[in-house]
Model the fold of this input.
Amino acid sequence: MRNAWKLALLGIAAAALAGCSTGALQVADVGSYHVGGRAVTLTGLPEKELVFTPGAPPLKFDPNGDFEVEVLYARYTRLANPKGRYPLLLWHGGGLSGVTWETKPDGQPGWENHFLRAGWDVYVSDAVERGRASWARYPEIFKSEPFFRPKKEGWELFRIGETGSYDTDPAKRRALPGTQFPVASFDQFAKQAIPRWSTNDAATQAAYDAYVQKACPCVIVVHSQGGNFAFNSALKYPDKVKAIVAVETSGSPNPETIDFARLKGVPMLWVWGDNLERYPFWTRITAQQENFRQRLIAAGGTGDRLLLPELGWRGNSHMLMMDRNSDAIAERVDQWLAKQGLKR
Amino acid sequence: MRNAWKLALLGIAAAALAGCSTGALQVADVGSYHVGGRAVTLTGLPEKELVFTPGAPPLKFDPNGDFEVEVLYARYTRLANPKGRYPLLLWHGGGLSGVTWETKPDGQPGWENHFLRAGWDVYVSDAVERGRASWARYPEIFKSEPFFRPKKEGWELFRIGETGSYDTDPAKRRALPGTQFPVASFDQFAKQAIPRWSTNDAATQAAYDAYVQKACPCVIVVHSQGGNFAFNSALKYPDKVKAIVAVETSGSPNPETIDFARLKGVPMLWVWGDNLERYPFWTRITAQQENFRQRLIAAGGTGDRLLLPELGWRGNSHMLMMDRNSDAIAERVDQWLAKQGLKR
Done:
């Protein structure tokens, strides 16, 4: 019997030696890379004088030279024993970066956390011009000026409040009744905003395509403006994109000119929040996305929908991965992915 | 004896149920946040016309409104059983972002990976104007134009090659003999570059101070331009900053005007690579940093140095956390931190 206890302790010790901790994520590896882009050389620009310290004499700076531009940044967390058959790539929308998917503005775990806990290797990227992908000089490299989204536009466009309901004073803002967005954290959310350009689509698509070639086979979960890039990448690499979860996607390639048959093996799920019918902007977009979905189905593809109000879940905003019920939505997405045979 | 085996299996099963995997990082939590910054309102700017799709009619865009600006972004990985008594904060240098510390340009694990494996909770941040902290409109909010570092400047200033040794063609670049920098990955490194401003120091300091108040007590590992911010934060919050590892720091507050006695409880280690004497820029900086260190020691503080050439380690560049021997350097840093009583 003494041996019995020795063996038992051996088993427990083996676990302890592996540094194991109940409830901890078993992470094989974290890391990041830049992918895509191109080398450019600037010439003929005048020297600039720069003042580094107030009062100090200006220093001459020559802006000419070689640069690497139009890259995409991705960061990954790979699990020791993933249950997802492929990594899950989280692609952000317009005026935002990969931070969309990380900890929510109210400090609660976001979709990155949820999908890691659900057993997926998770990749979070910043597209060309955003975040750690950075941006390039204009008009020499980028062809136009950037624009910065004011808080009011985010408040209204993202269906947190109706048009005209934004106020500089947080106490005076009128949110939609029953909104799931953590309204008290709206200004914290506004800290995530990133300037955007209207003229970089080709460069952004090229960088996403390079990313798909490097990181996939994969599942893509894509938000808003990112939709168009994900659908295009899937059309180019249908063998690499194993599924697309289209979270309130706002664009897609022209259905008249694409070959939907190429997407037959790429199951897609559209996820929509609440209050879409209150905004002409959103009814236009949902109609266009629905047309794309119907064409996909007609071509023999899988085009499913998760309409949250149909589940009786009211008040979800455009930023539904930040809404109070974000975990419950992610769980439905995870179930759909499992149904497509994408989990072990 | 049947019971013995049952108990043994029970121990092993308990480990398995905890999802344990040998060699995996036991991660309690990953997450991120923006901290610091201020709300600004822009008024009186003219409307702009933006073309979103080539050929489409321009859309009117009103750039006026409320914005959150001058924030700092931090991402953390917290371990289930950290050996470091405090989290380790990694602060980047000029023209770069937190990516400095992640996977190296040659694809090998960087200092973030090393310090996680060494048992530290690791935080990686992007300061004001960089990466996911993003930037603000100029000249209305930021007071000057940004500048973009050409590859040539990085090649020379970071002591990968001597002045005049850069060429657009990678095959024609002449690196310093015996350099530890992974020269074949220099263009990949250039993809990490981020525009910088010369007029944001006060805003950056304010955001770092807010970060220290939120994330500390902590240890700060800081590179190059970041040094000045870390020393200033330590002067303000000497109880929160438990140590500073100053990796080739290029600036510090004026030693004539600061009270070094406040830093007595903040041990510091300066880490220097090779070939400094070949560059007047670097001999000036090392002299200034050495003066700061001597004043710290004279005031009763701890100011240590890790001069890599003294260990017989030749060829380390300014980006020594990306050099081929980066793990060996990180190990020495870890040993020094342990000697300060900062590990369990």
In short: Chain A has two domains: 36-69, 72-339. Residues 280-298 of chain A form the longest helix (19 residues).
